[in-house]
């Protein structure tokens, strides 16, 4: 049985090593994406005007009036003093061509006191420019910047499949790491003084054993991040009922009543303030998310600066039908079925934010460890492959000599 597991581990490791190396290193960096982005690009984060901020809805109107080709889809409702207001936008449909306008940006930073646009960028563009670097690395982490072909997201699926292989290979690796009950201590040791191949082997085997639980968690949550709807949710729903998500909620896409007009953003926020009190949400509305294709809204509740969640299971969100303004769903941390709470925990676990700053430090270290495990695994494979090849060539040579005699 062990020889079979060795082969399985070898080929799963070789198949996933380069992907995990990239994901590990980028994951270690993007654990601090907001902080690094702010240091690299102060013009995108620091407002030029030291004055009270204008209402966010007014700033959004000014942005849309300045460039009628775009529509604001994500709008923070408050901002930290001295900071810009960062909005996400998407192209409107060109009435002449019936296709979206050609717009070269999807994120803007606005001086919150004046409405002046300080910077624009295409979040996730393939670019190493300082303004684009952190979004580039973030998207590289989970898609490798591979294209979407015919509606099929190649990168997201590929990294999700790598996560599945990694998850199963983690189990195989643990079994192989303990070949003998009596020699279990060796599986935790590092032969630092010997160096060379012995240390490389220990970094791979013992390094993986020490953090095996974290590796297994990262493998599973990476599947949840990339293949939540097609893979993870169906499995979880077999054990616990799941509430409809935002985009998969039929109540959000119901047809507009005859003769009605779509609800305004102001009405959505008024409804959200009322519903938040009923739901016991005591933090202010922090952001408005709009999906014009449905249309539907999401209202998130958090204090300025806590958009990325400092600790816990995330921020509360309420979802609204864009035709009627009716509350159509919610995602409130710690509430719902066991399956709902399990799914809520996936991103906080993957990012380490579930336990705040210590978790982010830990996840960053694990990302570096994943890269080291990937490289040492390849080094071990290459060395053994070279040894097998030399052994095979030597056997052929001996056989030739024997035949000649």
How would you sum up this structure in a few lines?
It holds the Pfam family PepSY_TM. The protein is α+β, with helices and mostly antiparallel strands.
Describe this structure in words.
This protein has 405 residues and is an alpha+beta fold. The chain has a domain of 193 residues. The chain has an 8-stranded antiparallel sheet. A hairpin with an 8-residue loop joins β1 and β2. It is elongated, with a radius of gyration of 26 Å. It starts with a helix and ends with a helix. The model has no long low-confidence stretch (mean pLDDT 92). InterPro entries: PepSY-ass_TM.
Helix-strand blueprint:
Layout: H1 2-30, H2 33-40, H3 42-45, H4 56-66, E1 70-76, E2 85-91, E3 93-94, E4 99-100, E5 107-110, E6 117-121, H5 133-143, E7 148-149, E8 152-153, H6 154-176, H7 196-210, H8 212-226, H9 228-237, H10 265-279, E9 285-291, E10 296-301, E11 317-321, E12 327-331, H11 338-344, H12 346-351, H13 357-404
Antiparallel strand pairs: 1-2, 1-9, 2-5, 3-4, 5-6, 7-8, 9-10, 10-11, 11-12
Helix pairs in contact: 1-5, 1-6, 1-13, 2-5, 6-8, 7-13, 8-9
* Helix percentage range: 40-55%
Strand content: 5-15%
Order of strands across the main sheet:
6-5-2-1-9-10-11-12
Major beta-sheet overview? 8 strands, antiparallel
**Total of helices:** 13
Mass-distribution shape: elongated
Distance between the termini: 40 Å
Q: Any idea what the radius of gyration is?
A: 26 Å
Oligomer: single chain
């Amino acid at each position: 049985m062990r020889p079979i597991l060795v082969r399985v581990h070898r080929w799963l490791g070789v198949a996933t090593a380069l992907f995990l190396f990239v994901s590990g290193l980028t994951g270690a960096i993007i654990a601090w994406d907001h902080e690094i982005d702010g240091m690299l690009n102060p013009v995108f984060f620091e407002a030029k005007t030291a004055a009270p901020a204008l209402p966010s809805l007014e700033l959004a109107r000014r942005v849309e009036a300045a460039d009628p080709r775009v529509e604001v889809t994500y709008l923070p409702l408050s901002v930290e003093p001295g900071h810009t207001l960062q909005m996400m936008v998407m192209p409107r449909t060109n009435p002449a061509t019936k296709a979206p306008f050609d717009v070269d940006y999807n994120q803007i930073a606005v001086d919150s006191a004046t409405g002046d646009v300080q910077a624009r960028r295409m979040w996730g563009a393939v670019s190493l420019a300082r303004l684009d670097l952190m979004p580039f690395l973030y998207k590289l982490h989970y898609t490798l910047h591979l294209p979407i072909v015919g509606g099929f997201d190649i990168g997201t699926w590929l990294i999700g499949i790598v996560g599945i292989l990694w998850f199963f290979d983690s189990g195989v690796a643990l079994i192989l790491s303990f070949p003998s009950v009596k020699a279990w201590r060796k599986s935790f040791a590092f032969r630092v003084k010997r160096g060379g191949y012995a240390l490389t082997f220990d970094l791979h085997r013992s390094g993986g054993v020490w953090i095996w639980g974290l590796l297994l968690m990262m493998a599973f949550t990476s599947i949840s991040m990339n293949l939540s709807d097609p893979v993870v949710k169906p499995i979880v729903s077999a054990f616990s009922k799941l509430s409809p998500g935002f985009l998969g909620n039929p109540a959000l896409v119901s047809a507009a009543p005859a003769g009605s007009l779509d609800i305004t953003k102001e009405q959505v926020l008024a409804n959200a303030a009322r519903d938040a009190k009923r739901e016991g949400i005591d933090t202010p509305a922090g952001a408005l998310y709009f999906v014009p294709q449905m249309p539907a809204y999401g209202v998130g509740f958090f204090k300025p600066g806590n958009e990325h969640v400092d600790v816990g299971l995330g921020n509360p969100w309420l979802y609204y039908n864009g035709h009627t303004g009716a509350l159509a769903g919610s995602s409130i941390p710690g509430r719902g079925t066991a399956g709902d709470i399990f799914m809520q925990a996936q991103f906080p676990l993957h990012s380490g934010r579930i336990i705040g700053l210590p978790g982010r430090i830990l996840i960053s270290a694990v990302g570096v460890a994943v890269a080291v495990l990937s490289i040492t695994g390849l080094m071990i494979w290459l060395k053994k492959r070279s040894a097998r090849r030399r052994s095979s060539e030597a056997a052929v040579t001996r056989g030739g000599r024997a035949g000649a005699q």
